[in-house]
Automatic annotation (TrEMBL):
The keyword Plastid does not apply. Pfam families: Peptidase_S41 (PF03572). The keyword Signal does not apply. Gene3D superfamilies: 2-enoyl-CoA Hydratase, Chain A, domain 1. It comes from the Bacteria. Residues 227-482 form the Tail specific protease domain. This is S41 family peptidase. InterPro entries: ClpP/crotonase-like_dom_sf (IPR029045), Tail-specific_protease (IPR005151). Keywords: Membrane, Transmembrane, Transmembrane helix.
Length: 514
């Protein structure tokens, strides 16, 4: 008992020192010579590990950007001041997965506990960012009595338009695609703001509503003790909720299935993320129900799905075809040892790292053995790059796939494959992820030695098993439907409505021809 107590005290002390050390480092000014070394280190690692670095930008152009950046470093900078200089150069590679990460402020256990007893500062309202302006879409808790439709002009005196333009430089979509950016800035704006300013207890918003400009203060409120207790309690999850990958925090399902007509003629599957969690069982049960119902049409909705597991989309595709298929080409790498550099220990606690350490040599050996060389290129044997048989309950009717600019990565891969094979009609908006593939799979996260900024570099060039368009664009729908993103009060679902109307129209023609 004594030993356990001593160990606990030591862990708390170490944790406190780590927090203090990290936060002091955030204020440190790093000498210019060290910052320039980090710039060179970043480019060196990109050239070493990124399997298609000059896909969307020429080597000469990228060389020039890194060289030019070094000439602008004329004075010492803090880590996150440096982040805002280096991140746009990394983003200029125009490969959507490649984003520099800043050094986040850390918080003690006591501070983290205190945060849980207070309401969030920004998350009680929903926002829509249009161009470089922010509007309140919904104010669920009537925070500051701010009306829906109100424009936020400033946050603590900083112009919102300046912040949006600043944050938009920190990321990119794939290639020349333009639909991804508007979705991603809506997802990431307040994350970037918090990285810059920390977890604030209050802010002053300068708002514009009904031609009246006014300042409104908003602040975190202390939650009632009952609410805190209820949030701590782990809710019971039913087997059906588990199958649909229910998220207790958001109280929403990752996967949903339903019939959109009383006669079960139209089946509808919505997947928010290809998380792989319980996916095989979900698709097995779902397609069995669809087959039993003898549905004629299937609508697969992967709008706002940023991607995820290759294993899941390979499983899903096996229910969408009636012939043997290979979903992706063998992933390319820069060398036979690239796979050995993926993050094995990253994200693990000290204890879990100790437990998993004995398996590390087998991990290295396995990655090496799964790598091969052919025609001066290096490849990795990924499961989804092998031939797969269709499932017994595979759907044989007409398929519609709904996409938008936030359909990214794995969502684009399965969409590109379905479109190329003429197996589905793609409806909506050009996907944010490229039609011809992406650089992802697994990462080697490098830590810059002086600024401690982190950069996850995708090790695999993953491309759908299709003939490439070479247009540097996303998956272009067979039928483009404007999602009316600019209308923050819109309640209709234009893309889904168009799809249902198209099904009804084609059914009516079939009926008349009989």
């Amino acid at each position: 008992m004594k030993k356990n107590f001593t160990f606990l005290i030591l862990m708390i002390l170490v944790s406190c020192q780590t927090v203090r050390k990290n936060n002091l480092f955030l204020e440190k000014k790093i000498p210019t010579a060290e910052l320039k070394k980090d710039i060179d280190y970043t480019y060196e690692k990109l050239q070493r590990f990124h399997p298609n670095l000059y896909w969307y930008i020429s080597k000469d152009e990228l060389d020039h950007k890194f060289d030019s950046l070094k000439t602008t470093i004329s004075e010492p900078l803090s880590p996150n001041q440096f982040f805002f200089k280096l991140a746009p150069v990394v983003a200029s590679v125009n490969e959507g997965h490649l984003r520099l990460r800043s050094v986040g402020r850390k918080y003690s256990k006591a501070e983290q506990k205190d945060f849980k007893t207070k309401t969030p500062l920004f998350a009680l309202m929903d926002y829509r960012i249009l161009e470089d302006r922010i509007f309140v879409k919904e104010n669920r808790e009537n925070v500051g009595e701010i009306k829906a439709g109100t424009e936020i002009l400033k946050i603590d005196g900083e112009n919102v338009s300046d912040l949006v333009r600043k944050y938009k430089k920190l990321y990119s979509s794939d290639g020349e695609n333009k639909t991804f950016q508007k979705y991603f800035i809506n997802l990431s704006f307040f994350n970037y703001y918090t990285l810059e300013n920390g977890y604030l207890d209050s802010v002053k918003l300068t708002t514009l509503c009904d031609n009246v400009v006014q300042d409104v203060g908003i602040k975190r409120q202390r939650k009632a003790a009952k609410q805190v207790t209820e949030e701590k309690a782990l809710p019971k999850i039913t087997p059906d909720q588990k199958l649909q990958h229910y998220d207790t925090a958001t109280k929403s399902y990752n996967r949903t299935f339903k019939f959109l007509r009383s006669d079960s003629s139209i089946a509808y599957i919505k997947v928010k993320s290809f998380s792989a969690t319980y996916s095989k069982k979900f698709y097995e049960k779902t397609f069995k129900r669809i087959r039993k119902a003898k549905s004629d049409h299937l609508i697969l909705d992967i709008r706002d799905n940023l991607g995820g597991s290759l294993s899941e989309i390979n499983t899903l595709y096996s229910y969408l075809t009636d012939k043997k298929f290979t979903l992706i080409k063998a992933p390319e790498m820069t060398s036979k040892t690239s796979g050995m550099h993926q993050n094995y220990f990253r994200g693990q606690s000290l204890l879990s790292s100790i437990v998993s350490a004995p398996a590390y040599p087998f991990f290295l050996a396995g990655n090496y053995l799964l790598s091969s060389r052919k025609d001066r290129r290096y490849y990795f044997r990924e499961f989804a790059s092998r031939p797969t048989r269709p499932k017994e309950d595979a759907f044989k009717g007409k398929i519609y796939v709904l996409v938008n600019g936030a359909s990214f990565s794995a969502s684009s891969i399965i969409s590109a494959k379905l479109k190329y094979e003429n197996r589905a009609v793609i409806v909506g908006e050009e996907t944010g992820g490229a039609n011809d593939g992406t650089v992802a799979g697994v990462n080697n996260t490098i830590i810059l030695p002086n600024s401690h900024l982190s950069l996850p570099i995708g090790l695999f060039l993953i491309r759908p098993n299709i003939e490439f368009e070479n247009k540097n664009r996303g998956v272009v729908p067979n039928f483009s439907v404007d999602p009316n993103f600019e209308d923050i009060f819109a309640t209709e679902d234009k893309i889904l409505d168009w799809t249902l109307e198209d099904i009804d129209f084609r059914n009516s023609i079939t009926t008349k021809s009989k």
